[in-house]
Inverse folding.
């Protein structure tokens, strides 16, 4: 069943992403202060948003596993965590490139940057935990709890700019500092393209984890 939607989803994501590249470099205007470097925003923003979506999936799948003890949910959580760590890591790297041009430094302990870095370490630790040798069901339960608790940092990332003084720019602001209509449309298309690719990768990686578990179970049975 998974293969029935993964490939079309990937193709749609690829087409929309290709369209977003045209919009980024041919349609969206060049920002007057930052110049061409500002266009990294159209990659940085989708990476960050879909990383947060990944961690939300880890949290939901964790609750579902604790309720049902169905290994499918553990596989979904593992796949989502892997994608989230990769996407959030790339968001931090692209943000650092942007910061170097905008603020003159590669890194600053801004509240939003700091909470995002903490989030990356939390879920990187979650992935390490998934590799620890312990009984299968116990490990899945422990990982589910850790994935749920770690998600508490995601709302903190969003609220950090308001809770503490932050120099991180607001996105889609309604008053002042917002995007030009062309920039807004380009950002939305880029987010949509990344979303389809994210869903395809999540489905594919979940399938791979499930197949690996089935092969491991067969190996143990043969022994």
């Amino acid at each position: 069943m998974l293969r029935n939607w993964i490939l079309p989803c990937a193709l749609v994501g690829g087409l929309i992403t290709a369209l977003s590249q045209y919009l980024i470099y041919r349609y969206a205007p060049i920002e007057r202060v930052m110049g061409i470097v500002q266009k990294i925003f159209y990659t940085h923003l989708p990476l960050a948003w879909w990383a947060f979506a990944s961690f939300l999936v880890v949290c939901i799948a964790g609750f579902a596993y604790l309720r049902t003890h169905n290994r499918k949910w553990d596989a979904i959580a593992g796949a989502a965590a892997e994608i989230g760590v990769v996407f959030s890591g790339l968001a931090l790297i692209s943000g650092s490139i942007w910061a170097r041009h905008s603020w003159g430094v590669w890194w600053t302990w801004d509240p939003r940057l700091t909470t995002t870095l903490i989030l990356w370490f939390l879920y990187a630790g979650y992935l390490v935990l998934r590799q620890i040798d312990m009984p299968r069901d116990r490990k899945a339960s422990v990982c589910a709890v850790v994935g749920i608790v770690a998600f508490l940092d995601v709302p903190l990332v969003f609220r950090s700019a308001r809770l503490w003084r932050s120099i991180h720019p607001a996105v889609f602001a309604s008053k002042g500092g917002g995007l030009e209509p062309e920039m807004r449309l380009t950002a939305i298309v880029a987010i949509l393209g990344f979303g389809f690719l994210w869903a395809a990768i999540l489905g594919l990686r979940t399938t791979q984890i499930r197949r690996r578990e089935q092969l491991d179970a067969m190996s143990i049975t043969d022994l």
Observations:
- The chain has seven helices and no strands.
- The CA atoms of residues 172 and 178 lie 5 Å apart.
- Residues 181-222 form the longest helix (42 residues).
